User: Fold this.
Amino acid sequence: MKARKVSRERAISGKRQSGRNGGEARQQCGPASKIKLIVVKRDERKLRDAMAAFTAASREYEKRQGKTGGDEAAARHYYGLARLADADRDFEAYLDLRFPQGLNFDPRREMKGIAARSNQRLDDWVAQKQKVGGTARTKYNAVFAIKDSADSIAAAARIGQISQDFSDALFTAEIPTNVRTGPYAQDATDAYCDRLQEVADPLEATSLEAYGTCLSKSTELGWFSDWSRLCERELGRIRPEAYPTTSELRGDPSQVAPITDVDVPTRGN
Assistant:
């Protein structure tokens, strides 16, 4: 399993941003507000121990069919967290599928062989992403059946992230130097970005739909969390002109319950 580092600039509302800035300065096809992701390797021992604990807890819950004899709602929630952790392993393997380097879709006759090989490499990467992402998506969808509000919103947000990462990997892929320089740079760059955008645009639309479903589910369940805020935030960053980010002003509380039970600090001998 991997952690992630992301870099991006703030999205600007109004006219949708275009990555086509012209000239050699343009190094990626999409706007700077798209996520550029760096995968960070996790501690393998801690990961192994954590997943073993999640697996054991899941088996025990399933063996009892959720009848724990105690707080069954809490047990269901933690079972959902274990299933999310299992899905996250596939999600992070999906994130680690690196975009192929050195592609060139230059339409000139003498470049047809290179363009054909580049198209095949891109198609192979897309197929691999779809396969691994599909496995993760199936596991996140299964979390909805557990019927825990917090876990359902988390799963819905992750499903949105699957498509968003796919599209953003295309939008932020570096345009190779030999494509964006030289006498045919403009045509070669346009061909490169047209090809990537052809794949990225439907994925971005899918992520918008998924994040919208996440917010609708949050409203339906009356459950708002960091995950629902993530869905709202990403909608605003993908399409700021359609989903302007809002901020809620909150006053200081006027009625506060007194503290009636305070732990006494302990002192060592």
Notes: The longest strand covers residues 2-7. Residues 70 and 114 are 64 Å apart (CA to CA).
